[in-house]
């Protein structure tokens, strides 16, 4: 067995036998994915509910429109009572050609929507009743890919974040521990090159990253969560690898100057936490203020996140690979270079 | 198999010096170790033993002076040289959470060695039963022994051991002596540090006594003791003879009675012993001649406490 292989195996065994590390690197992010995935599973289907009384073209049209959920009542009084109690925003009472809408004005937003909705349905019914073709056609459609619901958004984000933490913490802790426990000095006295030692650690980090990807994407694809991968998902592989390398480089840098495990842990937290919140791991970055979006551009996680999303779920083409890859590679080279400059074998 | 002619010098150290800020840890140390020699470095805590060893191994660069290890300067690191030396660092260096056997396998593979003699190695250091125990679950002495096995696993020509017998129980210590003697009988060179003077006396061909970064004396243990010209001590039970009687014997330098033991210090033990024999007081008598401990005490001016 050669040195690279045996060092990688030693590192992998060390990781797998460290229950706390396995928990924080594999299970903890998975918990986020599962919890958020379940919490926001129905986020897109939060429909307006209306009470309906009677049966006619308007009530039927409302039920079939798909935008509202109707709840049938036998008497107008009962329906109005529910609206008054604040349980439903409005009640539609259809009686022959008379359509009444009783709504709760207390919620202005809802009452506006309900009013507009019902009046448009009534208008359509009126046009249909004339037997003429409507002159104007109205075609609404949303700009977002309609499949980008919570799980589509969360999976690339949480995967990128998990790979980032594993890379930064794993590399930083290993090198500090190895220095403190004299493993680095012992390796220095063995006929193994620093490059081999470094590559074996990258090998371990890669193995962990792949397990994270398989685990998270696999679970997100379960019917319960319903992740659907885009056709160009495989283009995310380079982004994934470059991202992993960028975070390994950060970990190496921290591991190079930190003297104790505590210091390394603190420094890794300081790097990873803000990055996770400002790179769109947990909430979409395009909903935050413009300046914040600009600031987030300095984080490699933002670019890994964007790249992963573009290919895993948005199905972008190969041209979208250029920007995130270039930034992540550049980042790796610069940080990696600084790290090898300040790296110490000895304390 | 040493490559630089049999019987030559394995290590030549001349006038090395190392300072840490204000502190001079090693202050002009010179010595040579012949191939196949068992060389010991003795000294109290902070004497500079570890620093000296690390400079010779090529782990540290001396501020001044030179080191030749198997004909080469070990600094900067020579990849050709490192497989020929085996090092046990003062603090054990292990891969996290690997078992004793896995540690040895990993180290062996770093040197491109197979894993055939791993079990034999474990046996040699008496860890066969602990082969599948993780590094963090070993006792201090067991870690120490594993660390020694890791230094020997690639069959090096020169072995550096930094306090290998620290933390070992008496039995394990004796077993390790056998291991070290066996290694030496295979023609390997051993350089080691210890706090146990009896051990150094029993094992080493030559010892260097160090304090404050300098070598105070260096020779075979026997020559060091002889050179000391130290008195012998004869010890009797308290009350066997009156102190004043003993003072009158020929050859007695000093007499002390602490209430349990009467100690006679003498440079001519023969007449003192015959005087004691005449009085029939040889029962329970003990004679202690000078040891390395006395040499140490004499040189460093302090009582030795291991
Ligand atoms: N990395 C370092 N930085 C600063 N001072 C050091 C360093 N290493 C050793 N020293 C100092 O150098 C001196 C010699 O240390 P060294 O470790 O060589 O002693 P030693 O003889 O091996 O002692 P011990 O028997 O306790 O192992 C000590 O006073 C120690 O404090
Ligand atoms: Mg020491």
From TrEMBL, chain A:
Keywords on record: Antibiotic resistance, Cell membrane, Membrane, Transmembrane, Transmembrane helix, Transport
Domain ABC transmembrane type-2: 111-346
Transmembrane segment boundaries: 21-40, 158-178, 198-227, 233-254, 266-285, 321-343
Keyword tRNA processing recorded: no
Pfam family, one: ABC2_membrane_3
UniProt superkingdom: Bacteria
Protein name, as recorded: Transport permease protein
From TrEMBL, chain B:
An annotated Gene Ontology molecular function: ATP binding
Stretches assigned to the ABC transporter domain: 11-237
Top-rank taxon, per record: Bacteria
Recorded topology in the membrane: Peripheral membrane protein
UniProt subcellular location: Cell membrane
Matching InterPro entries: AAA+_ATPase, ABC_transporter-like_ATP-bd, ABC_transporter-like_CS, ABC_transporter_ATP-binding, P-loop_NTPase
Key words, A-Z: Antibiotic resistance, ATP-binding, Nucleotide-binding, Transport
Record carries keyword Nucleotide-binding: yes
Main location: membrane
Family stated for the protein in its record: Belongs to the ABC transporter superfamily.
Record-given protein name: Nod factor export ATP-binding protein I
Species per Swiss-Prot/TrEMBL record: Kibdelosporangium persicum
